[in-house]
Amino acid sequence: MKVQYTLPLAVASLAVAQGSGQTSLADALASKNDTLSALNGLLQSQPDLVETLTKLENITILAPSNEALESFLNNTEVAALVAADPSVVPALLTYHVLNGTYYASNVTDTAAFIPTLLTNSSYTNVTGGQVVSAIAEGDTVSFYSALKHQSNVTEANLNFTGGTIHIINRVLAIPSNVSSTAVAADLRALVGAVTKADLASTLDGLKDVTIFAPYDEAFAAIASATGDLSEEQLSKILQYHVVQGTVGYSSDLSNTTLKTVEGKDVRITVGDDGVFVNSAKVVIPDVLVANGVVHVIDGVLNPENAEATPNPSTTAPAFSGASTASGGAVPFTSGVSSVTEAATGLTPAQSSSGAGGSGGGSVSESESTEAGPRATAAVAMGVLLGGAAVALNNF
Fold first, then answer.
1. Which of helix, strand or coil describes residue 11?
2. Where does the sequence pass through the membrane (predicted)?
3. What pLDDT score was predicted for residue 374?
4. How far apart (Å, rounded) are the C-alpha atoms in residues 368 and 370?
5. Residues 258 and 240 reside in one and the same domain
6. At residue 304, does pLDDT exceed 80?
7. Contact criterion met (CB below 8 Å) for 129 and 117
8. By CB count within 10 A, which of 156, 172, 249, 302 is most buried?
């Protein structure tokens, strides 16, 4: 895709239409054309979106810099994805528009989850629009998208009549469905278990979900208890990790109980030692997916042991008598390839929400079943943005 370097006529004409005396969106973008000419060029191909943005009030635009957008658009694989589906570009652009005016000073060291204009059901099944996570880390304001993909603000608060613009150093990545995200995050045992239980399409199709996803070591710790599980029993266990109707981002979690798809409750405990789900600790919070959020945990939850309580000093399996297999083999991983074979291996570490730990999860950079391929393509673009992976120990 050829990147344009002049202010689009579609945008310029709207600047005139808005009149003088106030800074229009087009004027604000034009004032930084040396930094945002690539974005201006891309907007030229989306006149309907430009018209919509010009009429909106109380919005925040995360504007990728020339370097960020050119690197993205000039990738041959990205170009192929964009050419194959004309909805990709408007979906990506609307994901960069926040509902509400958020100046840099409004962003704190506590993660905030802000709805965007991305409501296209082919890409998201979250009520109110897909979100980005905003957090201030020292003097840097950052926005996180799919698979902890980090975009930093390089220039803040370019105000216009409808809100404000922040220039960012990396294009956001649209969150994918649960299945694709689990694969990209290298949650191999979970991927294998979901496949065996034939739950992938079910999980991907649910609206507004919170999923507690055990990493590989959690499954390895109960290996002896998994061999004789029927598909129905495995399905019951996995559904106990899923809450529907509530998207529980880390900032929303409190000491409470949540009803799972399986039917029983899980108990959330929040304290100085972190966030726990029954006795399992959240080690990687807030992995955004197309239909909600995933929190990676260090234990497999047991619906027959819902009273399991946190023990910060050790994580005992919730399955009584369960143990690791000989040689430490991880159940359900046969035939499931690892993304770390081709990318950097990552381990969970201390996060902004206070949940920390160690284990085998990794996160690479990178409603409806219809959302699957399109959302997967969006994550593929996110992976292409930054090479192979983003280390969570920097989060």
1. helix
2. none
3. 52
4. 5
5. yes
6. yes
7. yes
8. 172
**77 and 201 inside one domain:** no
Amino acid found at 347? T
Let me know whether 185 and 334 are in one domain. yes
Q: What is the pLDDT of residues 330-341, one digit of tens each?
A: 999 998 988 754
Are the C-beta atoms of 250 and 109 separated by less than 8 Å?
no
- The pLDDT tens digits of the residues spanning 212-264 come to 999 999 999 999 999 889 999 999 999 999 999 999 999 999 999 999 999 99
Side-by-side strand order, sheet with 131-137: 97-99, 59-64, 163-168, 150-160, 140-144, 131-137, 112-115
What pLDDT was estimated at residue 66? 98
CATH label of the domain that carries residue 295? 2.30.180.10
Residues 186, 162 share a domain: no
Q: If residue 259 lies in a helix (H) or strand (E), which one and from where to where?
A: strand 256-259
pLDDT in tens, 347-361: 333 333 333 333 444
Range of the domain at 246: 178-364
C-beta separation of 115 from 130 below 8 A: yes
The yes-or-no verdict on residue 109 having pLDDT over 70 is yes
C-alpha to C-alpha distance for 238 and 284, rounded to whole angstroms: 18
Q: How many residues does the chain have?
A: 395
Cα dihedral 152, 158, 159, 162 sign: negative
